[in-house]
Design a protein that fits this description.
By secondary structure, the chain is an all-alpha fold. It has one domain (33-150): AhpD-like (Up-down Bundle). It has helices at residues 11-28, 36-48, 51-63, 68-73, 85-98, 109-118, 121-144. The protein is globular and about 45 Å long.
Length: 161
Amino acid sequence: MEPRINLMTNELGAKISKRFYNVGLAIRESSLPRALPELVELRASQINGCGWCVDVHTKEAAAAGESAVRLSLVAAWRESTVFTEAERAALALAEEGTRLADAHQGVSDETWEQVRKHYDEDEIAALVSLVAMINAANRLGVITRMRGGSYDPGVFATLER
């Protein structure tokens, strides 16, 4: 299965992709722990079946110092002991924010309270934006059939703002 279009080589696609990247930069400038956004993006990408994004966020999380054990357990975080309560709150937010069509309630009050317990308002703004952006990116990847496996960590850092 070949990609349908390369959004990075298409003039408009590249312009939009740079905007996505700049939103990601703003999120990463928050005080969230360095690897947490990668874990959140990895979980949403697993749910959405975006091979490209799973590849990107697995490799970027590893480059940020995440262990192979923790990366392997992201898909089963509820049944593992390697994530902190704060990370579990962020992963629950990622799941519930990704599965909006599956749950009439959207993000539960319980999850929201856990997020509020562990993160300040700026970090919450970053997490909510992160979940929204990775879901949009997953849709771009799935619609265009971007495949995982070829991403080199740090490539996006070379993009101009």
